[in-house]
Amino acid sequence: MHSDRLPWHASPTTLTHAPIPADPVAEARHRDVAQLLKQVIEPTLKNDIVSLGMVRNLRVVDNYIYLRLYVGSHQLHLQEQIQSLLSSLPWCKKTYIQICTIPGVRTTLAISSGKGGVGKSTTAVNLAAALSVGGAKVGLLDADIYGPNVPQMLGLRQADVQAIDTSNGQRFLPLTAHGIKVMSVGLLAEPDRPLAWRGPVLHKILTQFIHQVEWGELDYLLIDLPPGTGDAQITIVQESPICGVILVTTPQQVAVADVRRNLHMFRKVGIPVLGIVENMSYLRDRFGEAIPIFGSGGGKQLAAELHTPLLGQVPIDPQICTGGDAGKPLTLADSISLTSRTFQQIAAALNATFCPVLVPLSSHL
Ligand SMILES: Nc1ncnc2c1ncn2[C@@H]1O[C@H](COP(=O)(O)OP(=O)(O)OP(=O)(O)O)[C@@H](O)[C@H]1O
């Protein structure tokens, strides 16, 4: 099985999204800090924490350094390393590090699309299933406020969410379907009613939603984002320790243009884009010939243009709809189908990158 590590594409703007002051002293200090931070290497991903988008909102005010560190549960030790490195700066009196993490969660990944209906939730659900079958502990957070259909795709349509009191306040308990822990904005709303949240209320609800779920120990938390590049997406992206995003598109030109916008949003915030999944790439006719119903080459062309890998091409497969409607993802219902194997390959590449202990021994040979 293919299990190459995913290449990383550092964002040139990772550290600059907090405005750099015009004061030349502060500017030089900001540069010194950024340079030092680039010396901190994350051992599993074998890249520096700046290129990995783990450091954001860097500010230098007089003799003080402020930054946000986005980490998984196994990366908390990086804080100490950063503190000790930055304390070597002669002018630095103190470094304030705000940790952004989800307790117990190792790797948080987002599934995003520029427009609705391209198969983002289908990809999220099938990838979660493929990772889970491969031995990972997986959670799926359906944050798509415009169309939260993950519960239905996993057979959880009527489920009730329980809340428990913990030492850290009230927490929602995720539901479990096919071994995957699931939480959805749809489960918190009245059935068949739109989620009509806007502005600060939307921000507050999404922030609580991200931080108040009791996931337990997870290797992966996949977040199914709302489509597009609006307020909701930006809130989720800024509030969660997302360490990579998978973009879903169809081969059509309009979908591809939307993905381009989507990708620029992530690069601006400093989150690495892991690659593109082209969904509904082709239909197999009865002779096994691939027919490009929605055009061809869109995903490949986009991947080349944006210097990001094409992670997989998922065919149009009626079994995907059947599986989604029946609440059992195709990757579980028919694990040897061509479609399922595409998701398994993407899952294998994710494991090779983020969770090497889950890569089967045969792949190391
Ligand atoms: N490869 C495919 N073959 C056949 N049907 C598919 C495929 N991918 C997705 N679909 C179907 O297309 C519909 C939309 O898929 P999905 O809900 O995953 O898209 P989405 O991008 O998440 O949409 P939204 O933005 O509305 O949440 C679903 O009915 C799904 O079953």
TrEMBL record:
Gene3D superfamilies in the record: P-loop containing nucleotide triphosphate hydrolases (3.40.50.300)
Keyword Metal-binding belongs to the record: yes
A Pfam family annotated for this UniProt entry: FeS_assembly_P
Domain MIP18 family-like: 32-97
CDD domains recorded: Mrp_NBP35 (cd02037)
Annotated family: In the N-terminal section; belongs to the MIP18 family.
HAMAP family referenced in this protein's UniProt entry, alphabetically: Mrp_NBP35
Function: Binds and transfers iron-sulfur (Fe-S) clusters to target apoproteins. Can hydrolyze ATP.
Designated name of the protein: Iron-sulfur cluster carrier protein
Record organism: Chroococcidiopsis cubana SAG 39.79
Native organism taxonomy: Bacteria, Bacillati, Cyanobacteriota, Cyanophyceae, Chroococcidiopsidales
